Hints:
This protein is of the alpha/beta class. The protein has helices at about 20-35, 50-60, 65-75, 90-100, 125-130, 140-150, 160-165, 200-205, 255-270, 315-320, 325-345, 360-370; strands spanning about 5-10, 45-50, 60-65, 80-85, 105-110, 140, 170-175, 190, 210-215, 240, 245, 275, 300, 380-385. It has 2 domains: about 5-55 and about 250-305 and about 360-385, CATH 3.30.1330.100; about 60-245, Rossmann fold (3-Layer(aba) Sandwich), CATH 3.40.50. The chain is globular and about 70 Å long.
Amino acid sequence: MRHTGVTARGIITPIFKQGDDLASQVCSSICDAAREEGFELHDRDVVAVTEAVVARTQGNYATCEQIAEDVRAKLGGEDMGIVFPILSRNRFAILLRAIAMSCKKLYVQLSYPADEVGNAFLTWDDIDERGVDPMRDSFDEKSFVERFGSVGKHRFTGVDYVQYYKSLGDNIEIIFSNDPRYILNYTKNVLCCDIHTRARTKRIIKAAGAERVYGMDDILTSSVSGSGYNEKYGILGSNKATEDKVKLFPRDTQQFVDRLSSLLLDATGKHIEVMIYGDGGFKDPVGGIWELADPVVSPAYTPGLEGTPNELKMKYFADNELSELHGRELAEAMKKRIREKDASLTGNMQAQGTTPRRLTDLLGSLSDLVSGSGDRGTPVVLIQGYFTNFATD
């Protein structure tokens, strides 16, 4: 009889560098961990590898000058604006420095009271007390300070992002609006820097009469002066690597997961699912910050991870049609319900009470929480028992 359900282990690996055979070393690390720590591997286990080590071993980097060169070629090199960048020293500050290098005048339009992923420099009390309608009211920096006084610092980092972002180029001017069209009062050349709403923002600005409109997913889609690149996401999902260089989101990701899956099958005889994961799709309930600053949770995965879970909400049945049962009788009746569900549900049909989320988003979020982003040394996560349920023997 099973006494545990889903387990997730962070797998300690070597410190990967550019040019390493990542798939082979990940396979070896998993097999070594199983052998030396005494656990078994099974069919439909999941191995999740963080995007950071995939990109690092690929050497998928770009310097500020390489980014600036591509932005200059696309936006003209004179005046330009960016709309809706996130507030992040790790994610965006170095990109802003590069963009400022590409032009003579740069207008930076910030959304308020917070950026797209919830980093706030005002509170809703600030908004309400001053009678501001954030869906209609737009400000240059002078009028913004007149209305709100000094802008608050980030709740967790303590950084005044308005002043910090201004310091990244002597040609930067900050403006504030939640209407993407407001930037057109200053320039007709626009780089949309939002992540998940980028397609809509581009469409609105183009329709309003912009001359050049690009998104971060349009920058470095091919190599510029020897840079790294990402055909699909450009500089979206990049992270600071050095003071002058970013690590881009990995490319050729499907080839990697397919090869690692094949290596694991050869080494273990088990059909193990593989995915690459970045940020998890979860939100901090205190600060209101949404973790997902990458364009997707998982850029590539093996076919067995396609779709959404088929699950019953056990507590719903325990509180309703099985409410009169207890103990072993309740357990057997619940298992019967689950087996009937397994036999009748097909595809991605959702059972009573469950929230439809993709498997890769759930597994990637779990992996992000397990691996952490600091010094644990576990860029690989092994998840077991995810596809079992209460009725599984």
